[in-house]
Write the structure tokens for this entry.
Amino acid sequence: MSDFFIDRLLSAIDRTACPVCVGIDPMLESLPPGVLDRIPRDATGLEASVDAIHDFSSTVLKTVAPHVPVVKFQSAYFEKFQWEGIRAYYSLIQEAKSLGLLVIADVKRGDIASTAAAYAGAHLEDRPGIATMADAITVNPMLGLDTLDPFVQVARKHGKGLFVLVRTSNPGSGRLQDAMLADGRTWSEMLADGVNEIAGSYLGESGWSNIGAVVGATQEHTITSMRKRLPKSIFLLPGYGAQGASADQTRRAFEAGRGAIVSASRSILYAHADKRYAEKFGNNWPKCVEQAVLDMKADLKRVLGG
Amino acid sequence: MSDFFIDRLLSAIDRTACPVCVGIDPMLESLPPGVLDRIPRDATGLEASVDAIHDFSSTVLKTVAPHVPVVKFQSAYFEKFQWEGIRAYYSLIQEAKSLGLLVIADVKRGDIASTAAAYAGAHLEDRPGIATMADAITVNPMLGLDTLDPFVQVARKHGKGLFVLVRTSNPGSGRLQDAMLADGRTWSEMLADGVNEIAGSYLGESGWSNIGAVVGATQEHTITSMRKRLPKSIFLLPGYGAQGASADQTRRAFEAGRGAIVSASRSILYAHADKRYAEKFGNNWPKCVEQAVLDMKADLKRVLGG
């Protein structure tokens, strides 16, 4: 197996014939009734909540592992439950890896110098005997491209990857990220050009870079521009499903079937709340999750061909 | 006492006659020999390390509490030690508050919608019987000004504050943050104008906003521009001491002695490594910390008058 994250990712995508990333965003208020019922009524504090999101996420991992190459843990939903939540977060990362899944930690950290190095230590750096971390993390570059260096150094040392936030999918992202510069580029385009310099310095054996980019799937024209500016970077495309992006919108991130992974969280995790699945599978929520993954795969396959 | 963070902060600054914020950035490799010696030689794993940074930080808090209004916890240095580190982080926040200190959690989180809400829950939202959180947190606005809404909502509900990253102090910050827009503003100036709209909507009784800004103290001309664009926001100025900013450079953030808090971390925490203090106090590292705080206060007083 290659020493580089990007090669492991591409090979896992080929093996599963599927550029889908399942986002593990466990939200207590959205859990299936069957999971919530198991919390004792007299439970107090964080422990019972953490047990519920841990059990739920664990079942989701086992359900999706045969079908997809990679999962993405959103750290906010674990941090919310303080240290108990963080313990579950690391435990689930281990479980995902032991199921053969690649793991992205969606932490969106960004800070300067030794602080960035500490974040890289917390979320990316394997420490023998202590912890095996995610295969890649998301990072926020706003503080400056120099602030990515400590993350790149740790990634390089451990054969891991980064996804740099370049253009996000939320409605208000345009005002800051599409701000027009005096040189005719948008701010995000300028950022992409800077990230591309870094991406070119850390390639896998496949020729693709270990430094990918987060590009919101909800802006078609943006994806086209970004695809040109970051030719060696794989894109992590959030926004499929619950956030409203369609498979058609994601097509421009791909070239010859490669170049992106499409991430979906709520539309898969909480498929039990979707009538289409509830009517078919009743209270069997893992079946709903599995069918939602299979439907998303089919949807993307239709668009991407192959 | 006012229900608003900003009023509590201004009143604490008046009481201590001191706009200094001590940054709690515990780094194992920099701890005083006396603290490190107490880790048993056969200790393994994270626990002994966390005990050391907890004990060190706890002594720092007790040492600086009589002299300064506010401390700032850098979450990266706790996250690095996984859940054990996070447990220490929350425990130290409680301790700081019980010592009468205001607490800023320097988490620099930023994400969209429900994820931002989860981060606000993790770091800002008091949950009776579970945890009392920091009085204010730092947030990263790159994803869009709309992504600040969930943080503002939680802050407003609990009378807390935010410091929005607007212009940072690291050497590489200029390329992204000073990018010149077609309309003649830099990107950070445009961002500041947007943050000012939000700041104006959440004022304290003092007339100052509960939404402050992080502005690197190393660029004098930038501080002047930002002061004009964010007239109601208090600035959190990192970069004093170890990062090279002088008291003179910070002067422009103040008007009539108000408008900013100056943050210093390593120059205070690790004062035992500074010959000036080591020669005077020997192995008594808390004395070194205390003297470094007093010297910083005097330095700022000289510049700010009063």
Notes: Residues 285-304 of chain A form the longest helix (20 residues). The first strand of chain A starts at residue 20 and ends at 24.
